[in-house]
Amino acid sequence: MSQFQNNLKTALLVALLTGLTLAIGSFFGSGGLYMALIFAAVMNLASFFFSDKIAIAMMRATEVGPEHELYGIVQQLAQRGGLPMPRVYVSPHLAPNAFATGRGPSHASVCATQGLLQMLNRDEIAGVMAHELAHVKHRDILIISVATTIAAAISVLGHMAMFGGTRDDEGHSHPLAGLLLLLLGPLAAGLIQAAISRSREFNADKEGAEMLGNPMPLATALEKIHLQAARIPMDVNPAFNSLFIAEPLGVGGRAMRSFANLFQTHPPLEARLTNLIGRPTTGQFRRAA
Questions:
Q1: Closest residue by Cα to residue 225 from 266, 269, 271
Q2: SS3 helix, strand, coil % of the chain, rounded to 5?
């Protein structure tokens, strides 16, 4: 998918989220429309200015400087990609993962977990960091933050509709509408939010591979990360799943896993590898049972 097509798809999905917010607000009458817009705007402003600080604090990450190997890797990639040098952090989590955050290339941060640095070789770490810098270059983190906050607003409005009642401008009550909004509003928002995130992962994989000059280090890194994800799950707020290079939460049970796949913010590993190297496996690792 081209960058233009990806951006167009994202714009349409964000528009769907906004429309869903307004539709839910309309069940409260004309005042509900204004309430929905104001609530979403406040949350978006908060995410614009504070999402990076929240993510770094959540991961208990520490900033590192030029003396750290990760800093040197990121510096080389940023120069190659024509990007300003981001702030570089390391999280003590043992689960292998990484993320980028910030509102744009001039205000960006990248973070890798200690588990990822211990598990991958230097080339694979570079592949992961190239992927994260691609997100920075495309301003994906800002877009995902907007989608996340709109989805959160929908969830809150759904609860208000259920427990506070829904009445239009003429005072008519909608008892079943409240229940439907509580159940279907967040469900639809979650599906749209996941679609936005998945659509951007493919582009970040391709851009990262081009930045590095070789897709194989990122491909092997993704396989290693996915193999370890079920063994060392990362217990974080699901609202932040889209930040990471791989889904941080493991889901037990085949039925639960199939249902959870609907809300996954990342494409399946096989699809990502096919996008990167033209086949669903690198052939270098035994697949998890």
A1: 269
A2: 65, 10, 25
DSSP assigned state of 288: P
The tokens for 50 are: 């504070």
pTM over 0.85: no
Instruction: Flag the least confident range among 30-44, 175-189, 210-224.
Output: 175-189
DSSP 3-37: HHHHHHHHHHHHHHHHHHHHHHHHTT-HHHHHHHH
- What's the CA gap between 77 and 134, in Å, rounded? 10
Q: Which residues pair with 173 in a beta bridge?
A: 167
Give the pair of three-digit tokens for residue 69. 């190997």
**CA trace torsion 219, 193, 248, 287 (10° rounding):** -40
Contacts of 191 (CB under 8 A, 6+ apart): 262, 263
Quick one: pLDDT at residue 165? Answer: 52
- pLDDT, tens digit, 9 for 90 and up, residues 9-64: 667 766 776 777 777 677 666 776 777 777 767 766 777 778 788 889 989 999 99
Tell me which of 63, 69, 132, 207 is the catalytic residue.
132
The structural domains of the chain, with segments of one domain joined by +, span 3-277
- From the DSSP assignment, how many helices (H) and strands (E) are in the chain? 10, 4
Backbone angles phi, psi at 47, to 5 degrees: -70, -35
The two tokens of residue 131 are 């992927």
Quick check: is 132 catalytic? yes
Report the C-alpha gap between 107 and 163 in whole angstroms: 40
Structure tokens at 97: 């993962």
Which two structure tokens, joined as six digits, stand for 278? 């033209």
pLDDT tens digits along 59-69: 999 999 999 99
Residue that the structure tokens 């750290």 belong to: 68
109 φ/ψ angles, rounded to the nearest 5 degrees: -140, 145
